[in-house]
Design a protein that fits this description.
This protein is mainly α and about 80 residues long. The protein has one domain (about 10-85). It has helices at about 10-20, 20-25, 30-45, 45-50, 55-85. α3 (about 30-45) crosses α5 (about 55-85). It is flat and about 60 Å long.
Length: about 80
């Protein structure tokens, strides 16, 4: 029998779980930010799974960057609305 390939969703979860030791070493404020990024990446698990990469690390990073970009854009729009009101 051939080797069973773990579904990407489980692989993403496993890679995030491997970061637990790293997270424990972070300052509490940094842990809070990491938790938000973790949640952002989890929102993209379906897209990552659809892409079916051998190693989902890169797509996990892109997912976090997409969410950061969305937050930056929202802040810019909020500032523009505030300045022009």
């Amino acid at each position: 029998m051939g080797r069973t390939v773990m579904p990407v969703r489980y692989e993403v979860e496993a890679q995030l779980d491997e970061l637990r030791r790293y997270v424990r070493c972070l300052r509490s404020d940094d842990r809070k930010h990491f938790s938000r990024l973790y949640a952002d990446v989890k929102r993209h698990i379906s897209s990552i799974s659809y892409a079916n990469p051998l190693n989902p690390n890169e797509l996990m990073q892109w997912s976090a960057l997409i969410e950061i970009e969305k937050k930056i854009e929202k802040l810019k729009n909020d500032i523009d609305r505030h300045v022009h009101s």
